[in-house]
Amino acid sequence: LTFPLLSVTLLVSFGSSMLYGYNLAVVNSPAVHIKAFYNTTWARRYGHGLAPGPLTLFYSLTVSIFALGGLVGSLLVGLLVERYGRNGTLSYSTLLILLAGGFMGFSRELGSPEMVIIGRSITGLHSGRCCLGCRAVHGPFLMARSPAHSQGTGEDFIFPMATGSANLRGFLGLVPSIFICLGVFFAQVLGLPELLGEDRFWPLFLSVVVVPASLQLLLLHCFPESPRYLLIERNDVCGATKALRQFLGTPDVQDVIKEMKEEQRSLSSMEMVSVWQLLRDRSVRWQTLSVAVVNAGMQLSGIDAIWFYTTIIFENAGIPVSQIPYTTVGTGAIEVVMGLIGCFTIEKLGRRPLIITGFCTMGICLAGITISLLLQTALPWMRYVVVACVVGIIAGFCMGPAGIPFLMTAELFTQSHRPAAYIVGGSLNWLCNFTVGFIFPFLQMSAGAFCYLVFCSICLLVALYIYLVIPETKNKTFMEISHIFA
């Protein structure tokens, strides 16, 4: 793994995956200030403030519309990559963040809650293009399919590792999830009262995303376009050769060019499957169902409720308000550590043990939150059990469910079915993200402590499905996986 390849991997993750994580958590700590702004603006416009119900509705929309933007962005990413290339798509998408930062940063000065909502939707559009839809952007920017495995999973490999890089596939597949964890952590740190957690700073807090986006926009032009895109999709052999030499640091790239030309011939004779054809294809019905289950389960596990509404959860648990920001930062630090552990152990332990253990841990901790909230009146120390359970939920999620569903989607399908599978999985992912972000406050108001049992049941059912249906995919070809499903 050469320095230029490592650099561009980190740069793309820094300006894409990390921003996704930041935007997940950034609305958590300033929730009170944003609601106060909405209420004040409404009173100034109409002569009366918002009732608790409509106010919760507006704030829930602010939180969850990020996911609707992400859904639109993920559906557009294929067309954009085909037209502008990987580098161009990332650059143009970065401009969206600058626009969103302007909307959110000037929203209070202009007295417009609508600008906050529009800004959140635009950041979601960016994340949909560059993060959850990034198998068309982030992965192919660095990777190409190995012809040696063209009858199998269509494994991706980093250029200098050639076909021997299968052992790095899981590690590299989880690198974006590490940056998502870092993004969440940075949002929690910046939300401290000593930094940007004060009322007057919340517009700046929301618009800080322009800084990493600007850095990515400036530095991305130091790297060439994806060699795979140049050769396979643009048939630019000279451009691909030049890019490969820069990425690999060696003038001898003919073997890699030869392999990519073989892939080009293979893809030209391959008919890509549409989403409708994928859903009707009986030969991959269990794989399709599995992708739907793990991607929907990833978001319906309740992790978005934890990220979006950590402050409210800790308030209901009786944690002193002055301690909540620091408690939240502690959970974020543990999230980063667990993400790193998952990243470095996935190729040793395999996909199944990590994702099953992760969902089971989350399910148990969600049940623990319900029990702790029910007993906190009689046992005040139960509030700290809630904190421990939140830490357990985050640790369980980062252990496997955070990144493995995307990796599994690639490993369960051949190249012809994979784009459609990513559309199915990505769409479910964003829709479930929106659902949890929008309904959780109302679910909490109506069901109280028992609302966490809904997520607990989903986690345990998904873990059971994976245990019974989905095989271990580490170091297996598509034909081996398909035979197991059959």
Q: What is this structure's SSE topology?
A:
Layout: H1 3-15, H2 17-25, H3 31-46, H4 52-105, H5 113-130, H6 138-142, E1 143-145, E2 156-158, H7 169-190, H8 202-207, H9 210-220, H10 227-233, H11 237-248, H12 254-268, H13 275-280, H14 285-300, H15 303-316, H16 324-349, H17 351-375, H18 382-399, H19 404-411, H20 418-447, H21 451-469, H22 478-485
Antiparallel strand pairs: 1-2
Structural account:
The protein has 486 residues and is an all-alpha fold. 74% of the residues lie in helices and 1% in strands. It is built from 22 helices and 2 strands. The chain has a two-stranded antiparallel ribbon with strand order 1-2. Helix 1 packs antiparallel against helix 9 (210-220). The longest helix is centred in the N-terminal third of the chain and has 54 residues, at 52-105. The radius of gyration is 23 Å and the shape is globular. It starts with a helix and ends with a helix. Mean pLDDT is 81; it is low at 132-167.
Spell out the key features of this protein.
22 helices, mainly alpha, 486 residues, 1% strand, two-stranded antiparallel ribbon
Précis, in short:
The protein contains 22 helices and two strands. It is an all-alpha fold.
Report the radius of gyration as a whole number of Å. Answer: 23 Å
- Name the structural class: mainly alpha
Helix segment tally: 22
Low-confidence stretches: 132-167
| Helicity, as a percent range | over 70%
Oligomer: single chain
Mean pLDDT: 81
Please tell me what the overall shape is: globular
